[in-house]
Design brief:
By secondary structure, this protein is of the alpha+beta class. The chain is about 35% helix and about 15% strand.
Length: about 140
């Protein structure tokens, strides 16, 4: 089980991660990853605030939420998929930057997927979502 501070609960948190994050789909899962905003050292910054916010930012844990729709299967199947994904994400959440938000959406193929296949798909999707965007040439 994820700690309460690491879980997404409100629909606004899910919406913010889905709208503002990077999306990557691999196999049986689609991952939406919203990384925390970091200041670019090459851009000019405003004067320092009166209090140090970097300590506040580093103490914010990474959070995760899960979307498993009825298309995946009946309630027993959906809960089994959600439990598997929760266990997999718990192991990988510490590798994400502090303050990041991860939403994992299970596709219908997740119902028949084995635990190792879900792990492989999740790892690949997170890796793609974390990589910087490449500009497409026209």
């Amino acid at each position: 089980m994820l700690a309460a501070a690491q879980r997404l609960r409100r629909s606004t948190d899910f919406a913010a991660a889905v709208r503002g994050g990077r999306r990557a789909g691999r196999g049986a899962v689609v991952v939406h990853l919203a990384m925390p905003v970091t200041a670019d050292p090459s851009t000019p910054t405003l004067p320092e605030p009166a209090r140090d916010t970097s300590a506040d930012q580093s103490s914010v844990p990474s959070r995760a939420g899960f979307v498993v729709s009825k298309a995946v299967g009946n309630a027993v199947t959906r809960n089994r998929v959600r439990r598997r994904l929760r266990a997999l994400v718990r192991e990988r959440l510490t590798a994400l930057p502090a303050g990041s938000t991860l939403v994992v959406r299970a596709l219908p193929a997740a119902a028949q997927a084995s635990y190792p296949r879900l792990a492989t798909d999740l790892d690949a999707a997170i890796a793609v979502a974390r990589s910087p965007r490449e500009r497409r040439s026209r």
